[in-house]
Design goal:
heterodimer, A: 329 residues, alpha+beta, Beta-Lactamase, Pdz3 Domain, 5 helices, 14 strands, 22% strand, elongated, B: 181 residues, 4 helices, 14% strand, globular, disordered C terminus, palmitate (chain B)
């Protein structure tokens, strides 16, 4: 299974949360103090890099949380950025760790919403938008022998070992000597591994980076999530639960909203981004307006409506800048 | 017309007369196209169905109603929220037979038929508001509730009020979660 979206780090835990219809915990992220949602203060600070202070709930055994301070600023939301350490959190591992990011107090940054997916009733991907994809790419010149260990995986060559400089495990070979590789073959059609095994071709400049998902892979991931969503509701100890509403990892949070008609809206965002619940409702409204009211759009089919795209991008930008939607907007 | 940011005007008013006239023109044209009343009724119902399947998402997005736990709750929501939102009227709900899941919506006044006195001669079995029936049926189908929606009384045919009967058929579940032993 390709898992290139969640980077394997020592502290990755895939945490899922299913909630029952009656939500016992109040999400504080939507009840933001008014002073923090003001536009001007956000804009003034969006360019700065500073430590993000978070107040974490007290641990049950009284010990303090250990947390690596992360300098954050625009453009560094995911772990792919060179030099940014992934937050390592010493956590109790039990249910206490689930609500870690709930109590975010302090100034919020304009962090990113990565992508939006719309999945229809049958699990097929109907719409997909990559709003912000942090792609760190490094190009380096190597001499024989190559210290990195490359391994083919799913039609790509991934770095399996030998992490150095900006090149991390999981990155794929993107280009050789400036020419983009297609899968495991160079632009001329030669097998990349054979090419790199021949000392005559060195020194060679190779570009590595996080591989982009192809549209087939996105389709597959969407239907996989659709199945997991259904399984989530069965796994839940509470009867009558909804499916997966949020999936939290170190580098992103996946929020899902299923309508009563079975359509799922999935938003992947930075873990610190708030107001995603309101954004999901807003996306539902935009869908019901610009996709459904378009007489030439057939239900359950891929959405190819220009107005839908435009309004969705607008809504994402508003959500990133100003945070939660007010009741009147 | 460009929408300013994400501020959507709350229900920009369009003249009701225009809507009623449009509906009337639609029915008149269908009568010209089809000889038999059943064909006209069926066309209207199908059109209503395709309206209903899209309208339901708009309704759910704007009204934020929670999942209904019983048929009577569903009917109440349809009568009090949906009809109010889209047609501006609130029909009364009566329960014909809870055991067999039959309900009625009684419309005292129907904006669609404000300007219609009676059916023309030769069109005595035309159900003027079949579109409404189709819309309700389509909307219920999208939330996985199969129903049969028919006219029990029709003001145009001499009755006092218009009565729409909704009979729920077996509930279709989208998720097959009956595997828990």
């Amino acid at each position: 299974m390709t898992s290139t979206e969640v980077r394997p780090t020592p502290s990755t835990e895939l945490r899922t949360r299913t909630t029952t219809e009656v939500r016992p915990t109040k999400r504080t992220s939507t009840a933001f103090p008014p002073s923090l949602s003001a536009g001007p203060t956000m804009a003034a600070r969006s360019g700065e890099r500073r430590l993000l202070l978070q107040r974490l709930p007290a641990r049950k055994d009284g010990a303090a949380w250990a947390r690596a301070g992360n300098p954050v600023g625009k453009g560094l939301p995911s772990g792919a950025g060179a030099g940014r350490g992934v937050a390592s959190r010493v956590s109790s591992g039990g249910s206490g760790s689930l609500s870690l990011l709930r109590g975010v107090k302090g100034p919020r940054l304009a962090m990113g919403i990565f992508s939006v997916f719309v999945v229809n009733k049958a699990g097929g991907l109907v719409y997909q938008l990559e709003h912000y994809a942090p792609r760190a790419e490094t190009e380096k010149t190597f001499s024989f022998p190559l210290e990195l260990v490359l391994r083919p995986h799913d039609e790509r060559l991934l770095v399996a070992f030998g992490q150095r400089d900006g090149i991390r495990v999981g990155h794929a070979v993107l280009a050789i000597n400036g020419a983009e590789v297609s899968g495991r073959f160079t632009a001329d059609g030669k097998d990349v591994l054979e090419y790199l095994a021949n000392p005559a071709h060195y020194p060679v400049s190779i570009r590595f980076g996080r591989p982009r998902l192809s549209s087939n892979e996105k389709l597959m991931l969407a239907s996989m999530f659709h199945s997991l969503f259904a399984i989530g509701s069965q796994l839940s100890p509470e009867p009558g639960s909804s499916g997966i509403e949020m999936l939290e990892t170190d580098t992103f949070k996946l929020h899902c909203f299923q309508t009563l008609t079975g359509i799922k809206f999935v938003v992947l965002a930075d873990p610190r981004q708030s107001g995603i619940d309101a954004l999901l409702r807003k996306i539902y409204e935009i869908y019901s307006d610009f996709a459904l009211k378009n007489p030439f759009y057939s239900l359950e089919m891929p959405i190819r409506c220009e107005l839908f795209d435009q309004n969705l991008k607008l809504a994402l930008e508003v959500a990133e800048k100003a945070g939660p939607f007010g009741p009147g907007l | 017309m460009s929408r300013q940011g994400n501020r959507r005007p709350e229900n920009p008013k369009i003249s009701r007369e225009l809507f009623v006239l449009t509906y009337g023109a639609l029915v008149a044209q269908l009568c010209k196209d089809y000889e038999h009343d059943e064909d006209v009724n069926k066309s209207l119902e199908t059109m209503g169905h395709s309206i209903g399947i899209r309208l339901v998402e708009d309704f759910l997005a704007r009204s934020a109603v929670k999942k209904c736990r019983s048929y009577s709750e569903t009917i109440e929501i349809i009568a009090q929220v949906a009809f109010k939102m889209y047609l501006g009227i609130t029909p009364t709900v009566t329960c014909n037979s809870p055991a067999r899941n039959e309900f009625s919506l009684i419309l005292e006044k129907n904006p669609l038929m404000d300007f219609v006195e009676e059916l023309p001669a030769g069109r005595s079995s035309l159900c003027y508001c079949s579109l409404l029936c189709g819309a309700i049926r389509g909307a219920l189908e999208m939330i996985h509730l199969d129903a049969e929606v028919t006219f029990i009384q029709d003001a145009l045919k001499g009755d006092d009020v218009t009565e729409i009967g909704i009979m729920f058929l077996k509930k279709t579940e989208s998720k097959k979660h009956k595997r828990n032993k």
